[in-house]
Amino acid sequence: MFRLLVVDDEKIIADGLYEVLRYLPNLELDVYKAYSGEEAVRLFDRTRFDIVLSDIRMPGISGLQLLDKIREKWPTCKVIFLTGHNEFSYIYSAIQYDGVSYLLKTEGYEKVIEVVGQSVREIELELKNESLLKQAQEQLYTTREMMQNDYVKGILNEQLNIREINQQQLDELGLPLRADESVLILLGRVNSFQNKSMYSYRTSQLYRIKRIAGQYISAHAVYVETVNEKSDLIWLIQPLPGHAAADGWDQVLTYIKGNLELIQLACRESVGEVLSFVLDDSPVSWEQAAERFSILQMLMNYRIGQGSGMLLLDKQLIRQEMRQAEKWGAKKPSFRHSRLEQLRDQLEHGQREEFEKTLQECAFTFAAVDSMHYTPAMEVYYAIGLVFLTYMNRWDLVDTVAAKVGMHKLMQPGEHESWQEAFGYLIQVGELLFSLQSQEEERRATAVILIVQKHILEHLHDPDEISLVRLAELVFFNPSYLSRLFKQVTEINLSEYISSARMNKAKQLLGNPDIKIQEVAELVGYGTATNFTRSFRKSINMTPQEYRSLVLSR
Hints:
Elements: E1 2-7, H1 11-22, E2 29-34, H2 37-46, E3 51-55, H3 63-73, E4 78-83, H4 88-92, E5 100-104, H5 108-127, H6 130-142, H7 144-156, H8 167-172, E6 184-190, H9 199-217, E7 221-227, E8 233-239, H10 245-271, E9 275-279, H11 289-304, E10 311-312, H12 315-327, H13 338-348, H14 352-366, H15 375-394, H16 398-405, H17 419-458, H18 468-475, H19 479-490, H20 494-510, H21 517-523, H22 529-540, H23 544-552
Parallel strand pairs: 1-2, 1-3, 3-4, 4-5, 9-10
Antiparallel strand pairs: 6-8, 6-9, 7-8
C-alpha cells in the first residue's frame, strides 16, 4: 500500500480529490489531505509519503517550495503538480527533476486517476529496478566477511543444517573451500587479553593477528577464519587446489606445524600478544566438524588453564582425548551443549518445528540411560528446565503452566521414573509454551484491533483521527504493519472497515428526519454533502435522500 497526500489551499478541491482517490480498488492507496504547504510539511515529519498531488500556487509555502521540503525529507517521493494554462512557465523548472510531473486543473478526475496510477506503476518498477539490485549486491560485498563469519560459526556450533553445507553456499559467500573435501581445524587463543577487555582494542589486535597468521598459512593452504564470542580465533584449512589428497594433507600438516611457533613469535614481537594454539592432528568431514571442534575447545581449556603460549601438536594427546570420547560412546551419550543455545533461540523466536526437533534429539540422546542419577543427563535436564523457567518468568506464565502440567517437576528430574519420561515431560512443557505463545500473540493482535476499531467508531466525524498514520501512532505500530495486521485479524482491509463504518453510521443518522443531509455528511467525516452523496451512491446504489425516503416510507 502506497501513501498519497493531496495538498491544496482550496478545500473543495482537496476534499474532492481525497474522496475520489481513497477508494480506488486497483491501487489500494492510503490517502491524506492537507489544506496548506505548512500542514503538508508537518505530515512529512510524521510519516513517509510515496506520492504528493499538490497545487502549484498556494499562499505561504508554494508548491515549488514544498518540492524542496519533499526532496529533503522523502527524496524518492513522486510529485504531481496541479497547474493552470498560464502557469506552465512557472512549473517548467520543477518538472526537469526526476519523479515530478504535472496536470492541468481542467483535465478532470479521470486524468488525475490515470496519472496517479502511472506514478504507482513507476514506484513498483523502481522497487524491482536493476540499479537497486546492483546497489544491494554492492552492499552484500561489504557485509560478506560478517556473513562468512556467521556461516563458519554456524557450522561449528551446529546451528546450520548439514544440507546448508554445500558448494553453492561456499561459493556464494566467497569462501575458498570445497564442500567435498575434509577440513583441518586450528584453534587459537590470545592469553594476554585477560587484562585488556576493551572491545575496540581486542578487535584491532585480532585483526592484526589474523593478517599475520594468514601470511604464513596461505603459502601452502586455503583457509577461512573467524572469531567466536570468546574472542578465540578459528581457522578451517584445506590443501591448495590441485594437490593429491594424501600428499596434500601431509604437506599442509607439516607446514602448519612448522610455522605455528613462528606465528606465535611474530604476534608477540609485532603485536605484543601471547597466543596459544591447538591444531587438530587430522582432517575431519564437514559433518563431524562441530564434534571435533568441541574436542579442541576442551583441550584448549583443559591443558592450559591460566597458562599462556601453549602449542599443542601431539597427535597422541589429541587421539587420546578422541579415543576417550569414543570409549565413552557406549556408556556416555554424546551431547553438545550448543543444542541448548539452539533451544533458547528457537523458543524466543517462535520456531516451533525446529524447537521440537532439537528437543526430541536431546531426549533421544539419554533415552537409553538407566540410572536417574546419571549426572550428564541431569545437567542437560536442569539446563533445559532453566531455559523454560527463564522464559516463563519473563512472560509471566508460571501460574498458567503450573495449572496445566505441574511446575514441581520442572527442576526435579527425580520426580520421573525414567529419563524417557523426564524428557517427555520437557517436551510436553515445550508444546504448552508454544501454544500459550500462539494464544498470546492472537490475544495481543485482537486487543490492538479492538482499540483501532473503537477509535474509528468514535471519530468517524474527524478524517485526521482515522487516518492510517494516526491509527498506527495510537497503537505504536508502523502504518504498513498495522494495515497488514488488521487484514490478517479481520479479513478485510482497514479502508473497507472505515468505509463500512461510515456507511452504517450514515444509514442510522438518515433514519432521523430531523438531521439534515449536510449534518450527516459532517458527522461521518465527509465534510460536504457533495462528497458524501458521491460516496453513498457508490456504496448503496442510491442517494442519501433516496435512502431516507425509502426508510421513512416503511
